Amino acid sequence: MGDNEGAEKREEHEQKEKHEKDKDVKEEKGEEKANEKKKKDKEGKKDKEDGEKGKKNKNPGDKKDPAKLRAKLQKLDAKMEALSKKREDILKLLQEVEINDTQESGEAA
């Protein structure tokens, strides 16, 4: 029996060592991932800085160019028209809901 107990203890010891090695490997991988993430963050910050430098500078002459001003006006008019259509649709839906609510409350009474 002494041989079996010794063999079991050795197996347990080997399993513990293997488990500890696995932990070490996982920790190393975690550190590597953290380092990679830091590198990516730094690269992202550099890209943002480059993007800010590459921003399109507004030309003050555009404010005096009639063609560009007309284009801006047309663009705004199109947006306003779409919004007014949405507003009308919402108002219709609201009226329908209010009418249904008044009819249901009238029937309940």
TrEMBL record:
Keywords: Coiled coil. It comes from Salix viminalis. The keyword Coiled coil applies. Residues 1-35, 41-73 have a biased composition (Basic and acidic residues). Residues 73-100 form a coiled coil. Residues 1-73 are annotated as: Disordered. It comes from the Eukaryota. This is NEUROFILAMENT TRIPLET M PROTEIN-LIKE PROTEIN. The keyword Coiled coil applies.
